[in-house]
TrEMBL record:
It comes from the Bacteria. Belongs to the ribose 1,5-bisphosphokinase family. Its EC number is 2.7.4.23. Pathway: Metabolic intermediate biosynthesis; 5-phospho-alpha-D-ribose 1-diphosphate biosynthesis; 5-phospho-alpha-D-ribose 1-diphosphate from D-ribose 5-phosphate (route II): step 3/3. It is an enzyme of class 2 (transferase). Residues 1-178 form the Guanylate kinase/L-type calcium channel beta subunit domain. One of its GO terms (biological process) is 5-phosphoribose 1-diphosphate biosynthetic process. HAMAP family: PhnN. It catalyses: alpha-D-ribose 1,5-bisphosphate + ATP = 5-phospho-alpha-D-ribose 1-diphosphate + ADP. GO terms for cellular component: cytosol. This is Ribose 1,5-bisphosphate phosphokinase PhnN.
Length: 178
């Protein structure tokens, strides 16, 4: 049975880095879905499809998103093409959201594999400071949010060490969950 792999983790945990590494060495029968986001295409970070708010709402009204949510003043959506990929027997990996796990869990049920990418708080703080996108107050908020317990049923994947180790652990987890 093909699975929707919902990758979650705190900002700075390394989701974009892991997704980039997986794109370079994608395991067989796995597709990495892009998200549709009302954020500029040149905003950096993940590979996404940039939409205006109006276009996002138009696509939402037309039923073109399998799942959609709003966070950080942006709209996020996953296209209905992921359902076709799942029907074809392909696992689909998406950059998900901890706070919006309920909608895909309801839609995909037992086909859903939630993975929480974790990083120690000292490592996370170091990464947030290094990237320089947040001020001190924003860093404190992100660290507090990261300290919250992972959603129930989420498989933990540590990203404290080298990315190559995280990539290998991800591949082992996929094999174990078959």
């Amino acid at each position: 049975m093909a699975r929707l792999i919902w990758l979650m983790g705190a900002s700075g945990a390394g989701k974009d880095s892991l997704l980039q590494a997986l794109r370079a060495q994608t395991p067989p029968a796995l597709l990495i879905a892009h998200r549709y986001i009302t954020r500029s295409a040149d905003a950096g970070g993940e590979n996404h499809i940039a939409l205006s708010s109006q276009e996002f709402q138009r696509r939402c009204a037309a039923g073109l998103f399998a799942v959609h949510w709003q966070a950080h003043d942006q709209h996020y959506g996953l296209g209905i093409e992921i359902d076709l990929w799942l029907e074809r027997g392909l696992d689909v990996l998406v950059n998900g959201s901890r706070l919006h796990l309920a909608a895909p869990a309801a839609r995909y049920g037992a086909r859903m594999l939630p993975i929480c990418l974790t990083v120690s708080l000292p490592q996370l703080e170091q990464r947030l400071r290094r990237r320089g996108r947040e001020d001190e107050q924003q860093i404190a908020v992100r660290l507090a949010r990261a300290a919250a317990p992972a959603p129930e049923g989420c498989h933990s994947l540590s990203n404290d060490g080298p990315l190559s180790e995280t990539l290998a652990a991800f591949n082992r987890l996929l094999e174990q969950m078959r």
